[in-house]
Amino acid sequence: MRDSIVRLEKAAKAFATPEGQTVTALDAIDLDVRRNEFLTLLGPSGCGKTTLLQAISGFVELDSGRILIDGEDMTERPPYRRPVNTVFQNYALFPHMTVGENTGYALEVAGVAKPERTKRVAEALAMIGLQGLESRKPRQLSGGQQQRVALARAIIARPKLLLLDEPLSALDKNLRQAMQIELKTLQNELGISFIFVTHDQQEALTMSDRVAVLSGGRIQQLDTPRAIYDQPKNSFVATFVGASNLFEGKAGSGQLVTEDGIAISHGRPGATGAATALIRPEQFFLAEAGSDAPSLDIDLEQIVFVGSTFELFGRTATGRRVIAEIPATRRNLVGEVEQSRHARLAYDPAAVHLIPAEAA
Amino acid sequence: MSSIAFRRRAQLAVLLGPVSLFLAVFFLGPLSIMIVTSFLAPGLYGGVEWSWYPHNYGRILGFADPMFEDFDPVYIAIFLRSLRIAALTVVATLLVCYPAAFCISRLSERWKNFCLFLITLPFFASLIVRLFVWVLILRPTGLANDVLLNTGLVTQPLDLIYTEGAIILGMVYVFIPFMFMPVYASVEKLDWTLVRASLDLGAGPVRTFLRIILPLTAPGIAGGAVIVFIPALGNFIVPTILGGAKVMMLGNLIEQQFLAARNWPFGSALAMMVMSVMLVLLFVYVVVSGRRGLDAATGR
Lengths: 360, 300
Description:
A: alpha+beta, 2 domains, globular, B: MetI-like fold, two-stranded antiparallel sheet, 12 helices, disordered C terminus
């Protein structure tokens, strides 16, 4: 496939634990990463995302399967002969070298002459907003600056692919959000594919062209952020990405009925059989008196104010937990609910997503 | 002085008092006596005569007392030989310990501790006894020659013992733990993600070793080199047992001057010379590592 920069074919890897069991980190994974794509590997710890990344960079040897980078078989190649660079989680800057030496390391190794190297180091540092800091040592920089140096060091040799292993996890929230935008911009400017590993679903949705949700060494779903969020293929994806209210039951005639007798209207008249209905918390709204929108009645347990929204935690009459997010602009209605400890949560049936039972 | 500052000082005095006193009495005292003695004339029947006599140093450096002897460069030769043997000991112990430290640092916690215990195990037996075992191995009718003769590799027993090689072998044997500990400490601390980063950026194993691993473990190597080189330079037990009368080192020479020749001033002068060589080397080490330490602090 000409469009593919990285291709994994039935990539499999299992590890032996000290207790003598084997853990499947990669379960015959097939994956195509497109040229100039920002792909995020998202999953809980132990889902295999880091193993997948290390298989691409060459630090993990596959038990079976193949890895192709730009059409070339890389399965047997050592890390230092792959056109791939990595931004490590703890930055892994060389403490005995200056920022300039760190940044230019890949060029030095490749035998680029000193004047050319100095020029390109200056360019790379300017690109990430650290111009003029060449002679500093890494330990003199803040965490955010070290992060940028690690980034500059990884892109300076123009790899075909940049791997990022949870690079933002050590930064504070504001800096992390700023870096998310910057990374996305940088990727557009450079025109190389990024594979970004994270366990933070917000991060995954913000930056990616496509997200691969991993669990148990398998790709559960590979799709655009919107599709992952709006149309999760199974309940793992639904619960891992974003908050969710799930109702398992039997679908039919525009309604899904759960075992405890709750009826959820949905926009798919043709759907039948066992299925799970997903309603995101923000799809609920507080029904005004006399509204005929389908709704759920809950007994309020708690209201949490998070700034732009109120989060309502409650239970149905049958004890099922429900979360709703109400915009802060509706504070009058929320005030009423707080008084009565009871809420009628309305929703638009078209916004309800049905997950077929076999996938869930 | 505020009472807090006063209490701090009092605490320091209490903590440092005993060790300062001990060093003053048992280190500075004898050292001063030795410095004074090294400039006195030897007595005819041992002891010293209280007169200014710089020729103790002259005998070593080239201005011997013309009344008794011509200058003989034999002492300089012994100096150079000792320096060479000590340097080779450092190199050889490093060659043994550096790879071993990498292997052991990657073992599980239990095996690590066991290996470290094995390294310190020789200290539990007397040094003299352990060195005499080497005599049994290296002598013409010893184990090494038995093996060589029986396998037909040689037809005549080799002269293994009483050679410089035997001394270096013995020295390496004695000083391996001293080299291992500081080297291991720095290897153990090595951050392997840096090695990965280097490989990831395209540097092969050799370059990664030279640019990343070696510089980051250099403090341990330097520390090990110093604490092996200094005692190796003055060691007299190993050359006495494995060098015999053939290969003399500084330690033997000094020992002889004090115990056999009863020329204390000359022995003191020799000891002072050894000490000044060591001080110069230590000074270089402190300056170099100090600058690096300063670098680390200021990032220059």
